[in-house]
Amino acid sequence: xxxxxxxxxxxxxxxxxxxxxxxxxxxxxxxxxxxxxxxxxxxxxxxxxxxxxxxxxxxxxxxxxxxxxxxxxxxxxxxxxxxxxxxxxxxxxxxxxxxxxxxxxxxxxxxxxxxxxxxxxxxxxxxxxxxxxxxxxxxxxxxxxxxxxxxxxxxxxxxxxxxxxxxxxxxxxxxxxxxxxxxxxxxxxxxxxxxxxxxxxxxxxxxxxxxxxxxxxxxxxxxxxxxxxxxxxxxxxxxxxxxxxxxxxxxxxxxxxxxxxxxxxxxxxxxxxxxxxxxxxxxxxxxxxxxxxxxxxxxxxxxxxxxxxxxxxxxxxxxxxxxxxxxxxxxxxxxxxxxxxxxxxxxxxxxxxxxxxxxxxxxxxxxxxxxxxxxxxxxxxxxxxxxxxxxxxxxxxxxxxxxxxxxxxxxxxxxxxxxxxxx
Length: 423
What we know:
- By secondary structure, the chain is mainly alpha-helical.
- The protein has 15 helices and four strands.
């Protein structure tokens, strides 16, 4: 699956150039492609989450090296379509209001389960940082007694997530599940991901680190919650869904939604918060998928999602393609040279992300790239950062060329005022 999508990125470029030279397209046709691809991406995210759900149930029912490995593989597969959907976030309030429930990071994992002594305990910023819900059926949060005897999706969503109003108390979503499958990555900027043993889910005397039944309950509940969250979002983009209808109601607002998502994800979120910041701090805790060492893939597929939004083309996990009239076509009608510039910059970013991904897949993991003084790692990460920043400048020009109101893209201190990062 991964190799197929990598092979198609060049095809996506040629497809965009070919259609740009064709017949005129309407803004409504462009928006229809955009919402159809959104529907497909969230549907694929839901489908792969259900596969993860089945793998988690198999792990819980029969803990073994094999079932843990299968659950981890299913989690990694589930990230591929979801990361490509993130370009829908910033321009669509329905998505942005929901996104924190499924993909919030970083998280204070001591809230959920046992952690290494080096993690520390409660802090002034978060007195719940080491609460360890799995080990404690009775909790106290903000002075209120909580019965956590049964770990349910409702307990996680209504009580634990962002407990005491603290954003790093992430109790749900992909990264909570990731932590439960891999455990902490204690390797710093050295090689290796988390190494949670399958016996952490075993029963009886085979159980390691205690509370295996409650750990299994938490993993099952968090995975069930992820599936239900994705069911909700998939419905928003289906025919007559609220997100789809909102985009199609106004041509101007719909185009602004596309460009806002592309620009904000390119600049402030991915180039800044997810890539440049971690490199400035030389901190593997700033990795997006820090427990599994999957960050290189998350970055790659986020960038691919941005390219997909512009070209109006998405390759599904089964290899089938959804494509149609695109923002590239619309831009080419107004300014062919600007469209060619945008496509070239998107391809340059994907080339940089492919280099980063290939290095990580070859054993030079993303957290190793963040090591202070590692020139090769810095060059790989900054190749992606610079590509994302450069393409954002062209996105800004497209906004003007299409006669749209100026858009304020998301920023990041790491890009806009780097001195603030160290204050």
